Amino acid sequence: MYEEVFPNKRFRHTLEFMRKHIGTSETILDLGVENPFSDIMKKEGFSVTNTTGEDLDMNQEALKNSDASVVTAFEIFEHLLNPFTILNSVTSDKIFISIPLRLWFSSAYRSKTDMWDRHYHEFEDWQLDWLLEKTGWKIVAREKWTNPVKKFGIRPLLRQFTDRYYIVYAEKKK
């Protein structure tokens, strides 16, 4: 049953991390169109609104006009050219961000069939931390986890113990 609700480790970790820091009474603006994880958040009792697919690099109106108490950005910053502008446009006092970490043994992800499904950035943890600090956020909590795959080879072996995901909960500095 648990695996049916959480089809992968990333969703389970993300939800557990959120629950440690906010309750379901918070309103959430989730950056990106509706997706399997925004559906999970809703099923778990969170009030979630998604952005509508606008190019957030060019148009931050959804962030500026939102009255949500929390912004979530799960696996979206790596697709953006300018996360700095996004972080400066957030009007909420709380933010959750998760990113895939840059792996030394694997190049950045680039879909061969979908021109939008590419990673412009693959951060190291310190780079996201610095970006948050520079845009006026204080990191309250952070976690990392691996993403093992069930394949044979050197890269799958390295994925068994190399952190792939990084999640941060931050609050605006007062």
Description:
This protein is 30% helix and 23% strand. The protein has 174 residues and is α/β, with parallel strands linked by helices. It has one domain (2-172): Rossmann fold (3-Layer(aba) Sandwich). A six-stranded mixed beta sheet has the order 2-1-3-4-6-5, with helices on both faces. Helix 5 links the parallel strand 3 (70-74) and strand 4. The model is unreliable at 1-6 (pLDDT under 50).
Query: In total, how many beta strands?
Result: 6
Uncertain segments are 1-6
The strand line-up of the biggest sheet is 2-1-3-4-6-5
Name the CATH class. Answer: Alpha Beta
Instruction: Summarize the amount of helix as a percent range.
Output: 25-40%
Strand content: 15-25%
State the helix count.
7
CATH superfamily: Vaccinia Virus protein VP39
Compute the average pLDDT.
Answer: 84
Anisotropy-based shape: globular
Total domain count: 1
CATH architecture label name: 3-Layer(aba) Sandwich
Largest sheet: 6 strands, mixed
Write the element-wise H/E pattern from the N-terminal end onward. HHEHEHEHEHEHE
| End-to-end gap | 43 Å
